[in-house]
Write a structure and sequence with these properties.
This protein has 218 residues and is an all-alpha fold. The protein has helices spanning 2-25, 38-56, 67-80, 94-98, 106-112, 115-124, 140-150, 158-167. The chain binds heme C (HEC).
Length: 218
C-alpha cells in the first residue's frame, strides 16, 4: 500500500514539474503555422463539438421569418462573417488562409449543426480559435437572422450568392435600432445619431466601410 501511494505521489510531482517546464521554457510552440498532430486535433475538435452541443441543448430556435429575414442575415454575414467563412464559390481570403484552426465552410457546418448550435457558437464565439463572440456587440434577433441565412447556405450556389450580393445594398441593419447604415455614399462612419441600443459598446463605427476602395498594393 505504502509503495503504491509513494509511486502515485512521485508520478504527480513529476507531471507537475514537466508541465511547469513546458510553461516556463517556451517549449510549447504557439505559432499559428504549427500543425497540430492528429491526436491533439481530435481532442480539440471533440471538445468543441461536445461543448457546443451541451450548451446549445436548452436553446429553442425562434420560428424563421421568411425572405426579409434571409436578406437581413445575408447583409450581416457579408459584413461580419464572409471575410473568414468563405461564401459559396468564393476564394479564401488571406485571413482565412492564415488561420489555424481554419474557419470552416458554414454551408457544411449548417448541415450537421442545429440552428441552436450555430446560434450558440455565433453568439459566444470559440475560445483560442479566432472565432469572435458576436453576442458582445449584437442582439439575439440580429444573430438569429444570420443563422436563418446560414441555414440556407447548403442549398446556395455561387450564382445565388452573387445575386443576393448584387441585390442588397452594403451594410447591415441592427434589429431594434432600425437604422439602415447601408448607404455607401456616406463612407461608412456616420451613424446619423442612430439608435444602436442603450449600451452599445461598439468602438467600430459602422459596418458600412468602403471595403472596395481602400485596398493595399502587394
Ligand atoms: C476572424 C475570423 C472569423 C470571423 C469574422 C467569423 N468566424 Fe466563425 N469561426 C472562425 C474560426 C477560426 C472557427 C473555427 C473554430 C474551431 O475550429 O474550433 C469558426 C467557427 C464558427 C462556427 C462553428 C462551426 C463548426 O462547424 O463548428 C460557427 C457557427 C461560426 N464560426 C459562425 C460565424 C458567423 C455566423 C460569423 C459572422 C457573424 C463568424 N463565424 C465570423 C473564424 C471566424
Amino acid at each position: 500500500m505504502k509503495t503504491i501511494i509513494g509511486t502515485l505521489v512521485l508520478a504527480t510531482v513529476f507531471a507537475i514539474l514537466m508541465t511547469l517546464l513546458v510553461i516556463y521554457t517556451g517549449a510549447f510552440n504557439v505559432a499559428t503555422t504549427w500543425k497540430d498532430p492528429a491526436p491533439i486535433s481530435w481532442v480539440l475538435e471533440t471538445t468543441r463539438e461536445n461543448s457546443i452541443e451541451t450548451r446549445a441543448a436548452s436553446i429553442v430556435a425562434p420560428p424563421t421569418k421568411g425572405d426579409k429575414q434571409i436578406d437581413s442575415g445575408f447583409r450581416s454575414y457579408r459584413e461580419m462573417c464572409a471575410m473568414c467563412h468563405t461564401p459559396p464559390g468564393g476564394t479564401d481570403s488571406p485571413i482565412t488562409k492564415g488561420m489555424n484552426p481554419p474557419p470552416p465552410d458554414l454551408a457544411k457546418s449548417a448541415e450537421h449543426m442545429s440552428a441552436a448550435e450555430l446560434f450558440w457558437a455565433t453568439k459566444n464565439g470559440i475560445r483560442m480559435t479566432g472565432m469572435p463572440a458576436w453576442g458582445v456587440t449584437h442582439k439575439d434577433g440580429e444573430l438569429w437572422d444570420i443563422i436563418a441565412f446560414v441555414k440556407k447556405l447548403p442549398e446556395m450556389s455561387k450564382a445565388d450568392y452573387l445575386a443576393l450580393d448584387a441585390r442588397l445594398e452594403k451594410g447591415h441593419d441592427h434589429a431594434g435600432g432600425g437604422h439602415g447604415h447601408g448607404d455607401d455614399s456616406h463612407g461608412g462612419n456616420s451613424h446619423g445619431g442612430s439608435s444602436h441600443g442603450d449600451s452599445e459598446p461598439q468602438k467600430n463605427d459602422g459596418h458600412a466601410h468602403k471595403h472596395d476602395d481602400d485596398g493595399h498594393a502587394h
